[in-house]
Amino acid sequence: MQSPGPAWREVVKRDMVAIKEAIANRDLPTIGHIAQENALRMHALNLAADPGFTYFDGQTILAMQTIDRLREEGLNCYYTMDAGPNVKVIFDPKDQDDLLNALTPLFGAERLVVAKPGPGIEFLTEPVMKF
To answer: How many of the other CB atoms lie within 10 Å of CB of 92?
Structure first.
């Protein structure tokens, strides 16, 4: 497979600057929009490769369409994906129940995992392991 080249690197560089600013400003719509569009661009590169490929399956497309519809209906939610078929949803915590109520009938509660931010970094004054 050929490298996507400098154009992709420039897009990622621009997205990183913008998303860091959005994170600092706690701007969920901008964070979600950038994450979603970046994931779509990455997967578009997969489709445009020689030979082209995709990780998407029917459930992936259903999740993407559902999140887009829920956002159009007023939920502050966006999808993103890594190199695989699994969809991650970035959402406003106040919408969690509505989001789960919409997704559970489609995918089953056992397939939905809600992750939350961890405690943040911790500076250690002593080495964790001594050799």
So the answer is: 14
